[in-house]
Automatic annotation (TrEMBL):
GO biological process: methylation
GO molecular function, one term: methyltransferase activity
The protein's name: Class I SAM-dependent methyltransferase
EC number: 2.1.1.-
Pfam families xrefs: Methyltransf_24
Keyword Coiled coil: no
């Protein structure tokens, strides 16, 4: 994240009215695809837990949490304000998140859109290994914590154990210039550890350790897919991958937060007050202008000035010049 982007982040409203008010890196194509995968599972009667590694201020977690079914658990794992487990991860935290991230800010954002918080594990994602979360229980896992190679390798191992056989794993920043570690870990998992790509967007890799074909068929048949999604198919080492281009999408915005109506009413009131103030200012200026014009007219009507004007109008120019010269002399 650049300094300019961080400065923008710091000027977001404290209470989000809409998802775009929550700082983060989660864009429309991926919001659409998260909802596409989760809804597809729900329509097929698939149940299972949800997990996000790396939540920041909640932008993607809020969307995932919108799909939590009654029997399911949504777990979010993030360091938030805790120390990182190693120096490289600490530097990453310092550079990108420390200035803006607190657990309470995450919670406040999340509760603006949902009645209950997810299960929060405030710890390094490495703490999820070794049985802290149930094996084979998850239907959807988003990996978006540390972007360093060693961490992502560990997160993928956790995901592989935690996912149901047909569960979906999403990796963030698998191809960005500033995150070669994620790219290395992702493609290593594809080539050496049986991870199968389903679909790629500009920002995220969607895969499974199960069968990628049914979801790919539904994508290519455009089942419930936005008509703006521009699909292409790529074959890599004999394996099919779908790609979604980055053309603008017209998808419905995520539902507004619980603060939306109040904030909208407050904004409308402020705007009305501002308009009324501007009108009053304009009225005062017009009244002042009228007073000035009246004063100038009264001045013009004073007898001495009337006489001057009449003299100017009636006497020949040579006479009026002579009078003026005489007065100056
Ligand atoms: C890119 S942000 C997540 C963005 C978020 N998913 C969104 O869409 O807005 C990465 C997050 O990972 C967290 N993080 C970094 N290293 C971590 C680690 N080792 N364990 C757990 N969380 C970590 C950071 O605190 C930060 O909140």
């Amino acid at each position: 994240m650049t300094d300019a982007a961080l400065r923008t982040e710091q000027h977001r409203p404290a209470e989000p009215a809409v998802l775009d008010d929550v700082p983060g890196w989660f864009w429309d194509h991926d919001r659409h695809l998260f909802e596409w995968f989760l809804t597809r599972q729900e329509k097929a009667g698939v149940t299972g837990d949800l997990l996000e590694m790396g939540a920041y201020l909640g932008r993607s977690a809020i969307v995932i949490g919108g799909h939590l079914q009654p029997s399911e658990t949504f777990t979010v794992c993030d360091l938030f304000d805790s120390d990182a487990p190693d120096d490289e991860n600490a530097a990453e935290m310092e550079m990108s998140y420390r200035r803006t991230l607190t657990r309470s800010a995450f919670e406040e954002n999340y509760l603006s859109f949902h009645d209950e918080l997810p299960e929060i594990i405030q710890a390094p994602t490495s703490s999820l290994a070794g049985g802290r979360i149930p094996a084979g229980a998850f239907r959807f896992i988003h990996i978006d914590a540390s972007h360093l190679y060693e961490h992502v390798v560990g997160d993928l191992q956790v995901a592989r154990v935690a996912l149901q056989p047909e569960g979906v794993v999403v990796l963030d920043d698998y191809r960005s210039a500033h995150t070669p570690g994620v790219a290395a870990a992702t493609w290593e998992a594809v080539f050496n550890h049986d991870l199968k790509p389903i679909v790629l967007t500009e920002g995220k890799f969607y895969g499974t350790w199960g069968d990628p074909e049914p979801a790919q068929r539904d994508l290519l048949d455009r089942v419930d897919l936005s008509e703006d999604c521009d699909l292409t198919v790529e074959v890599l080492n004999g394996r099919r991958m779908v790609r979604i281009g980055n053309n603008p999408l017209r998808i419905a915005p995520f539902r507004p937060s619980r603060h939306h109506d109040r904030l909208a009413a407050e904004a409308a009131r402020r705007e009305a007050e501002q308009t009324a103030e501007e009108e009053q200012r304009a009225q005062r200026a017009a009244a002042a202008d009228l007073d000035a014009r009246r004063a100038r007219a009264a001045e013009r009507r004073r007898p001495v000035n009337v006489a001057k004007r009449v003299a100017g109008d009636l006497l020949p120019p040579v006479v009026t010049s002579a009078i003026r010269r005489a007065r100056r002399g």
